[in-house]
Q: What sequence folds into this?
């Protein structure tokens, strides 16, 4: 039978029966009817996963089922169900997603917040481009990510594009792209607040409204935690204190509908952050401000989009040396890193007949920054060291998504980037003489071409096959070129002679699902060769100090497989498991052949994830997330081993009416005390955290 226009239906039958409801674009749904029932039967259809839309894979809205690229979409419900406090920890449920040193952004130094996908050499400089509504979140000077700029209450969904994506996004997308997209409600107010142990408190808010052609969106978030002592109990001393953190972020956007087919907006955002890094003298803070704007227009000639942004930042950090027994601490350096950066993107897209969708655009970016360091000896400032420079990038990109009948899709694309490193210099001024010595580095320019060819074949209604080949790159950041740092007893030196990393890779996969979408299986095999990856190479080891320098590490081979299964039982129970095998090794390094065959630091060979969510509208919702990783190495020599670990998070929530939900979130239920760093002192990941809170959401 077919329902009426409003979705209602009726029939005559005796006894009871099972109903199967189908509709194009929706997963099949079942209902059980009985003649003895006194209430009408309601069957709710859920959109098929194939009908979900991604904008990250092609820079325009595309059905997930028509995308050859591997894209993971975490919706608003997925983010809300996660017990993780921060967005980066929420993303750990994506197989293959890792952070440098295993440490999340809750208390870790922001310079360690580099994201990586598929074992593409994680470090403080992210190998994954992270975007917020199309604007980069990666720090322009250092490449790390300020996850605290994303207010949790404002998230509509997060899209994770795995594999090299420089053909559309340029540098930093050598491993993939993560994009957080904020809510676009016409009118809404959402609040998310909680309190937890360890002096932890967070409040996040989103508001939106429209009056006539004018619209506005505002976000805000405040967070504080007393943190925890990161050094293991058997190694810590009186100098070790809790690593606390606090941040305050916000944004305000005003938009205007210029015509039925055109809109424009301006936005201002800010972030203030401060962290205590585990000893009294080691601290850092960040002040960030950004203005952005854009316009969108569509017509018979296609769709045109414009985005521009400009931001300034001041980053401060202090470093110290500790006594062997960790009873004393001496200030060694105090850094101030001012920087400014901006960018412009123009993009055009158009459907050309029934078979082609064209995308083309141009992009430009710049960043200027310096690291000004006061050097201390025995607690007294002795010299000022200043190093920095400027980078500029211009790029053109184009792609054609071709529909080859009903069963195949083909994507051809390429991007050309031209960038310049200019005004590089390093100067030293001893305070005793006030005579400055300066070393100037020659300007240089490089060009990178990043192509892509990918294919999607619908072998059957339930089985699809994908394949892709691509090139990608990442230019070294100003931080890697000019700024050194010290962490514990490990000193890492900058290197102004670094060159860009280049990746050539490919992947092949298959996806299968049942007719009702109650079970979905996916497998992807990938391989990538990265030439000249930037890594921290050990130069000297003494009992008091490990000295490393950033160097181009010859060539890395990263290969592996990703497996995932997702199942649903009715509308209440959903679960998924994921596994990633990543074999990332140093394939060649002429400068130090002894490193050949070694595992790439900070890459676990085996990673597994687990999610289970049960929803009952009259009682409670329960969500579990588990993560496991095998051992990995802290250093390039593969001598410092970080053992494997498993953690389990849980969240229990109860709806109160239509707008409110109370919840209890529990992180690290297993109370695992796993190592996240060896410097060479062992530092630990976050302990058990329990939070209780409330979410309020009024939207239209």
A:
């Amino acid at each position: 039978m077919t329902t009426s226009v409003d979705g209602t239906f009726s029939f005559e039958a005796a006894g009871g029966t099972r109903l199967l409801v189908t509709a194009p674009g929706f997963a099949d749904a079942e209902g059980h009817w009985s003649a003895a029932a006194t209430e009408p039967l309601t069957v709710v259809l859920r959109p098929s996963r194939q009908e979900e839309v991604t904008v990250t894979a092609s820079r325009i809205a595309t059905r997930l089922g028509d995308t050859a690229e591997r894209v993971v979409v975490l919706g608003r419900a997925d983010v809300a169900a996660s017990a993780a406090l921060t967005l980066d920890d929420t993303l750990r449920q994506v197989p293959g997603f890792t952070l440098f040193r295993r440490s999340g952004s809750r208390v870790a130094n922001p310079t360690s917040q580099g994201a990586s996908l598929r074992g593409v050499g994680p470090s403080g400089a992210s190998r994954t481009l992270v975007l917020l509504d199309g604007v980069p979140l990666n720090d322009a000077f250092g490449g790390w990510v300020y996850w605290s700029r994303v207010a949790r209450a404002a998230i509509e969904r997060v899209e994770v594009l795995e594999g090299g994506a420089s053909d559309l996004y340029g540098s930093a997308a050598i491993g993939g792209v993560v994009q957080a997209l904020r809510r676009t409600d016409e009118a809404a107010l959402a609040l998310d607040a909680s309190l937890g142990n360890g002096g932890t408190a967070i409040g996040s808010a989103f508001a939106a409204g429209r009056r006539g052609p004018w619209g506005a969106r505002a976000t805000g978030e405040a967070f504080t935690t007393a943190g925890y002592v990161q050094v293991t109990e058997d190694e810590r001393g009186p100098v070790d204190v809790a690593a606390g953190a606090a941040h305050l972020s916000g944004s305000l956007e005003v938009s205007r509908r210029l015509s039925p087919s055109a809109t424009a907006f301006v936005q201002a955002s800010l972030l203030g952050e401060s962290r205590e890094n585990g000893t009294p003298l080691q601290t850092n803070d960040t002040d960030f401000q950004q203005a952005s704007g854009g316009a969108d227009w569509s017509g018979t000639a296609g769709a045109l989009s414009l985005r521009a942004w400009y931001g300034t930042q001041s980053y401060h950090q202090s470093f110290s040396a500790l006594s062997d027994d960790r009873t004393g601490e001496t200030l060694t350096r105090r850094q101030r890193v001012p920087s400014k950066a901006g960018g412009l993107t123009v993009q055009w897209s158009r459907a050309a007949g029934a078979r082609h969708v064209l995308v083309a655009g141009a992009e430009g970016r710049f960043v200027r920054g310096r690291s000004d360091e006061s050097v201390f000896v025995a607690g007294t400032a002795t010299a000022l060291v200043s190093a920095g420079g400027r980078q500029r990038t211009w790029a053109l990109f184009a792609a054609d998504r071709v529909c080859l009948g009903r069963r195949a899709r083909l994507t051809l694309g390429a991007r050309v980037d031209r960038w310049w490193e200019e005004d590089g210099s390093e100067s030293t001024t001893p305070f005793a003489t006030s005579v400055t010595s300066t070393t100037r580095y020659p300007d240089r320019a490089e060009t990178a071409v990043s192509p892509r060819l990918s294919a999607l074949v619908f072998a059957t209604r339930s089985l699809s096959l994908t394949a892709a080949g691509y090139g990608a790159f990442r230019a070294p950041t100003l931080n890697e070129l000019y700024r050194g740092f010290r962490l514990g007893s490990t000193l890492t030196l900058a290197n102004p002679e670094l060159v860009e990393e280049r990746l050539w890779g490919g992947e092949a996969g298959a996806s299968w699902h049942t007719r009702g979408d109650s079970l979905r299986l996916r497998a992807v095999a990938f391989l990538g060769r990265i030439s000249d990856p930037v890594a921290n190479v050990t130069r000297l080891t003494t009992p008091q100090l490990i000295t490393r320098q950033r160097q181009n590490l010859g060539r890395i081979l990263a290969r592996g497989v990703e497996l995932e299964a997702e199942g649903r039982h009715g509308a209440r129970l959903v679960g998924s498991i994921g596994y990633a095998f990543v074999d990332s090794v140093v394939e060649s390094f002429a400068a130090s052949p002894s490193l050949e065959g070694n595992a790439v630091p900070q890459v676990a060979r085996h990673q597994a994830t687990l999610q289970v969510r049960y929803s009952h509208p009259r009682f409670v919702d329960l969500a579990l997330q588990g993560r496991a990783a095998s051992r990995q190495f802290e250093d390039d020599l593969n001598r410092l081993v970080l053992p494997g670990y498993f953690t389990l998070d849980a969240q229990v929530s109860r709806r109160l009416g239509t707008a409110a939900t109370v919840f209890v979130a529990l992180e690290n239920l297993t109370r695992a005390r796993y190592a996240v760093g060896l410097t060479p002192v062992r530092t630990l990941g976050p302990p058990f955290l329990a939070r209780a809170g409330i979410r309020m959401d009024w939207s239209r």
Remarks:
- The CA atoms of residues 360 and 398 lie 4 Å apart.
- The radius of gyration is 26 Å.
